[in-house]
Amino acid sequence: MTPAEVELIAHWRFRAHRVQLAHYESARKFDRLHLWLGLPAVALSTIVGTSVFASLSKPANITLQIVVGLFSVTAAVLAALQTFFKYSELSEKHRIAGAKFANLEHRLELLGTMPPASADELKKSLTMIEDTWAKLREESPNLPGRVWQRIERDQVLDKQAPGFKADSPTGRSLPSNNESSSSPLQ
């Protein structure tokens, strides 16, 4: 492989790794949001149900009835928000996208460590990886802006990685037209 091909593979691997991390972090974020809406809804529903059964044995005062009514409405609103935002569904989509990008990164890692015998085979492998990447861009859910910004800030191309060029103004000689600060994939 030429130095440019080694650098290309290292750069693609780096980018795939960042997107993988961003999708996994997004999955965790949406899991937390799902729980933040779901657990209070369950707790409030339980309190309302218990209060209703307790009030059957003896008449409840008006304050307790108002509080139970407010809890009931709050539980319903939380359950409705949980259904509307579909955080658990978003979490699963991001988890799957993260796994697919992890697979892509693994393929790039294998290509870098065990290169094909000929230039034609390498070109074919790179083209297949590029096509897979394009398909993943279309299938994957959008990353939350804050998650991507944090990943972009924290994950910097390793200057010790194969293919790194210290004399380049960005530390890389590859064009980064496929990776902008606003979006990791477009």
Key attributes of the depicted protein:
disordered C terminus, mainly alpha, rod-shaped, 186 residues
In short:
This protein is 74% helix and 0% strand. It is mostly helical.
**Looking at the structure, what is the overall shape?**
rod-shaped
Average pLDDT confidence is 84
Low-confidence stretches: 163-186
What's the number of extended β-strand segments?
A: 0
Order of helices and strands: HHHHH
Helices and strands in order, then pairings?
Layout: H1 3-57, H2 62-85, H3 87-113, H4 119-139, H5 145-154
Helix pairs in contact: 1-2, 1-3, 1-5, 3-4
How would you describe what is shown here?
The protein has 5 helices and no strands. The protein is rod-shaped. The protein has helices at 3-57, 62-85, 87-113, 119-139, 145-154. The chain has 186 residues and is an all-alpha fold. It has one domain (3-154). The two termini are 28 Å apart.
